[in-house]
Amino acid sequence: MGKLWGGRFQKDTSKEVNDFNSSIDIDKVMYKEDIEGSIAHVTMISNCGIISLEEGKTIIAGLKSILNKIENGELSFTSDNEDIHMNIETLLIKEIGEVGKKLHTARSRNDQVALDIRMYLKGEIENLKSRILDFQKIILKKASENLYTIMPGYTHLQRAQGITFAHHLMAYSEMLKRDYERLEDCYKRMNSMPLGSGALATTTYPINRVMVKELLNFDRLGVNSIDAVADRDFVLELANDLSMIMMHLSRFSEEIILWCSSEFSFVELDDAYSTGSSIMPQKKNPDVAELVRGKTGRVYGNQVALLTMMKGIPLAYNKDMQEDKELIFDSINTVKICLSTFSKMIDTLTVKEENMKKACKEGFINATDLADYLVKKNIAFRDAHKILGEMVFYCIENKKHLEDLSLEELKSFSEVFTEEAYEVLDIVNCVENRDVIGGPSSKQVTIRLKELKDYIVKKEMDKE
Ligand code: ARG
């Protein structure tokens, strides 16, 4: 069969242009959405009397049979038919004959592709959300196990104040919650049904767009036909949401990589989630975390490519927009594999509690706590800060920790010091005394863990 649009042409497309123009290798993954969309379209045009009910039935049966055959691997696509839309239409005509040629009545590939990509991405958003929830479950478990695992918290990558491993992990849970909500939000805006917009200016047939919207589970209709076919904002929004997920995973990766080094030695990755060196027999490398960090670049790249692809094209549809799929599909696949591999790596890692605790010894991370103690004894914070600064300097000079100073030494810096100071300096107390909303105390983190658990249950219920 020649091209579906071949009537106006005197010559065949050159082989090179044929391949250049074809997107089937990429958009074939949308075969199901394309067929579902076509079934809804045919249901509607046959109900509206645009084609007969009998014809509608035959076409729908043909489309269902094609779907079956595709899923059983009995049919294949060809680049001669350019994209998934024309491949399916051609297969339909082969399957049911002449009546198949009525499928594309009152429709254009422009509104068809705008529909298919929305349907496909809606499904992928649900998949991504599930993977985020799976990761949240792992964080919940790991954090619950490490409610009392004390470690130094850092600013500027310098030991700063005492926290727990649970509190640190729960910071990532907050990021993932925002990632999840961004996806929910993106879904809402994507949920507008473009079919019926035609090439750009709708159609003269008496179609029923509301019916199609309902059959396909969309929230609302795209109400400007030009925008409905020219809009790819939802692809861009998703690309951004995916970049942000990668940014979060990449920060986490960076920490894992640091923590695995002998310099930190805070965690050990499971053998199944690390790799060796071809030359250095002793090596155990955090390749998964490094790859996640590295792949963040391509997800950002896809976003920038999409933004650039869209920025100069006049309304409405232009073929430039065919490039959207390869880019967004790559981002989706990358984020999916990263979320699942990375979260399993976290699930299986061993926490080296002793080393974390030991690291709290150095770096005077209890200095703020002792300054606060002075403030409670009626010394202005700025003065207390200065006193502690001098005490830290003294300790460095004398190779001591704050808690090693005798009461006499303490008193030489301020008369108000008593034995209580040693309680305040104890790292466990430093953490537990930070008992305000958002703080690292076991009480506060327990509240957050309970919230996270409820959140996961609620989101899983929403899915059903
Ligand atoms: N394969 C095309 C795409 O992905 C489908 C729309 C083609 N429309 C057209 N008028 N050539 O954008």
Give a verbal description of the structure:
The chain is elongated and about 100 Å long. The protein has 464 residues and is mostly helical. The protein has 19 helices and 6 strands. It has helices at residues 15-21, 24-27, 31-47, 53-71, 84-96, 109-145, 165-190, 209-215, 225-230, 233-260, 287-311, 324-348, 353-361, 367-376, 381-398, 407-413, 420-425, 427-432, 442-463, and strands spanning 150-155, 158-164, 192-193, 220-221, 267-268, 350-351. The mean pLDDT is 96. Helix 3 packs antiparallel against helix 4 and helix 10 (233-260) runs parallel beside helix 12. It has a two-stranded antiparallel sheet. The structure holds arginine (ARG). Arginine is lined by residues 23, 27, 83, 109-110, 113, 317, 319, 321-322.
Percent helix: 55-70%
Provide the spatial order of strands within the biggest beta sheet.
1-2
Element order: H for helix, E for strand: HHHHHHEEHEHEHHEHHEHHHHHHH
Q: Could you tell me how far the N terminus lies from the C terminus, measured between alpha carbons in angstroms?
A: 45 Å
Would you count the extended β strands for me? 6
